[in-house]
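Protocol step 4 of 6.
Sequence for MFS transporter (Aeromicrobium wangtongii) entered exactly as in the expression construct, tag removed. Do not edit the line below.
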Amino acid sequence: MAEALTADELSPGRAQPAATTDNPHHATRWLILAVIALAQLIVVLDATIVNIALPTAQEALGFSNDSRQWIVTGYALAFGSLLLLGGRLSDLLGRRPMFITGLIGFAAASAVGGAAQNFEVLVGARVAQGVFGAVLAPAALSLLTVTFTDAKERAKAFAIFGAISGGGGAIGLILGGALTEYLSWRWVMYVNVPLAVIAVIGAALLLKKQPRSADAKGIDAPGSLLVIAGLGSFVYGLASAESDGWSSATTLICVIAGLTLLAVFAVVESRVKNPLLPLHIIWDRNRGASFLVVAFVGIGLFAVFLFLTYYVSLTLGYTPLKTGFSFVPMILGIMATATGSAGLVARIGPKIPVFVGMLLAAVGMVLFAQLEVDSTYAAHILPGLVITGLGIGLSMAPAFSAATSGVDAEHAGVASASVNTFNQIGGSIGTAVLSAFAATATTDYLTGKAPSQANQALAAVHGYTTVFWWAAGVFVVGALLCGALFRPGPVAVNPDAPVVGH
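Step 5 output, structure tokens:
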């Protein structure tokens, strides 16, 4: 393990000989950041890029509406349930080989999905994407964690990474719309191949081979099985709720079984010698608050990406490409605050930026909740997109940084995986719960009314705005809870610093 940095060595503006001497990537750190950011973009945009292409793919391959959701859920199921194991493998086998393996596997799965001639192959390819994404994502974030050790530079690096993570979904909508409209739905899969090839070449040239850490331990088999089964069952149950309802046997059994298995996982992790997820990583106040931030943002972002996409495409009649480009102001807002606030976060810590950012996102949701059938983009959608983007950028970048700060090298991968796991679970909860709220609100609105086209449109918009009100509440609760949990002041970067609660 690298020699610990002293408090003086970590102070802003002071030279850090230990970091530059022990870190073989110091000279090329900004180029490495570009490669890592590209890899993260591949993973994040694939959560949304397929959405716009789904109707076209459904028509081409001839699968049912009930089957359609599994194109999205198959990816989320594999990705969410395997992230912690992927992070541990990164710690054990090395970040460089797992990063490259994840990229190559993701590209191969994307190529198979693009060439799919039936529903089964397409779903299988999406599941494979999720598997390799679970290898790639924690390796990317842990590489970022150990590459940037200077406090100011680390804040900038994580600001860029946070901007990519927050805006990648919107970029996916733009790419999905453009590729579907001008090429083919198959290119929403194929596009990953050249991006991954560029990232693999960059990783092979820039990342140094490093010996396995002497502190690395073996795989926690019981914990791995429990968390995979628990997260898989939980995500599957939430996905089933959208089609089968919350009271269905499948939904209830899977959700209850998933939560039970995760509870058993927590007990096991507190007792085994080499846990998959050392519980002190979660119980640290700053890291715990960071995990909650990305979970709350995952829930809220789902409301924007899915239901605002429905609104502009179905209610306003936008084309796929125009729908994607309508989210550009939010991307710019995310990038502005994520990168522009790096210096501020390095000086004062994440507490205030996260609190303000989540409140801004709540304001954006309230503006979306005012939408009507005849609302216009410039007057009624654009302000909400800008404000929401500013808030998400201000929240995500410091959360990613704080979530991996103060973690020793042995656990950098699993800490990184935990961030993505919480974000994925947040998105899965948002998918199921908010979809159910929208469906119920739409049905209730139509009760006692004639099933005319006008009433159908009004009911659909009522369902969307109901979701936006709930999302606003999620962001407010997140702001209050996470604002209370974060400790005031800058976050320690020293990986050997004492961990509160350990």
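Step 6, annotate. Residues 48 and 172 are 5 Å apart (CA to CA).
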